[in-house]
Amino acid sequence: MRRSESEAHSRTHVERLPILTYQFDVEEETIDETIEIEEEPDIPNVDESESLLSNVVSDVNKTLTNLYNHVTSANVTAENRTSIANETRKLVKCKEIVYEGTEEIEVEIINGTHLAKLLQVKPDVTSRDTEADCVLVLFYARACPFSAHAAPYFNALARAYPNIKMVALDALKYHGINAQYGIVGVPTLKMFHNGRPVGKFNGTEYNIQSFSKFVHAITGQYPLELLVTSKDFQGPVSSVVEKDTDYFLVLSWLFIIVCSIYYFMQSKWWNMIVEMVQNNWRESEAQHEHND
C-alpha cells in the first residue's frame, strides 16, 4: 500500500515536470520575440536614397548645361558683332609715292602753312576706298620728354611705310592750328586721307611696333622693315629734350597769380590782416610817444 502511494506520488511528480518546463519555455520565447520587435531599428530604403541623389545630380547637370549654352551664345554673338564691324569699316587706300633717284625716305619737319597745303581736300575723292594721299602727322614739342621718347621710332617708321607721307610739326610753336585739328596734348599721332582725319593713335606705349599696328589697322599695309638705327635718334625729329621757354605758359602763370592776389584782397582774411597791422602800428607809435 505504501509502495503504491509512493509510486503514485512519483508519477504525479514526474508528470508535472514536463508541464512546468513547457510553460517556461513558451514564456521565454514570447519575451524574446517581443524584445526583437520593439528594438528593431528603422533601415533606410537604399533605392530611395539613390533616386534622390540621381535627381540632384541631374538638376546640377541641367543648370551647368544651361549656363554653358548661355555663355557660348554670348561669345558667338560678340564674335559676330566684331566680324560685322570689321567688314563694315573700310581701310583707306593710299596713293603710291614716287621717289626720285637717291631721294631719302625720312620724316619732314614742317610748319603750319605747309601742313595746310598737305591736307587740302580734293573734291573728287569722296570715300576711303578711293586712292588719295595719306599723311601721318606727329604733333610734338621739343621740351616734352614724351615727344623725345617717341621721336626715334617715328623717324624709323618712315622707312617702313614709304607710301605714306610722314611729317612732324611743333605744336607749341604753331599753336594756332591745335584747335583746328583737335590737338589737346603732345605727342599726338594722327592719320589723314585726302586731308580728312581717319585715325588717332591712343596708345600709351611709344614704340615702333605700336606705331606700325596703328598704321596697319587704318591702311592695311604691312611694313617693309621695323628697324630703329642710331641715326633715328639724331633726327629729323630730335630725341633730346630741349629747354625752351614757353612764354604762353609764363603768361598763364602770371594771370593766375594776379587773379589769386585780387580775390584774396577781397576776402575777409585780407581785412583781418590789414586791421591787425594797423593796430600794431598804432600801438607801437603810442609806445614810442610814451617813451619820449
UniProtKB/TrEMBL annotation:
PROSITE patterns in UniProt: THIOREDOXIN_2
Superkingdom assignment: Eukaryota
Transmembrane segments: 247-265
Keyword Transmembrane attached: yes
Gene3D superfamilies: Glutaredoxin
UniProtKB keywords: Membrane, Transmembrane, Transmembrane helix
Pfam families, A to Z: Thioredoxin (PF00085)
Key word NAD present: no
Biological process terms in GO annotation: cilium assembly
Chain ranges of the Thioredoxin domain: 116-220
InterPro entries noted in UniProt: Thioredoxin-like_sf, Thioredoxin_domain, TXNDC15
Gene Ontology CC, one term: cilium
PANTHER family: THIOREDOXIN DOMAIN-CONTAINING PROTEIN 15
Protein's name according to its UniProt entry: Thioredoxin domain-containing protein 15
Native source species: Papilio xuthus (Asian swallowtail butterfly)
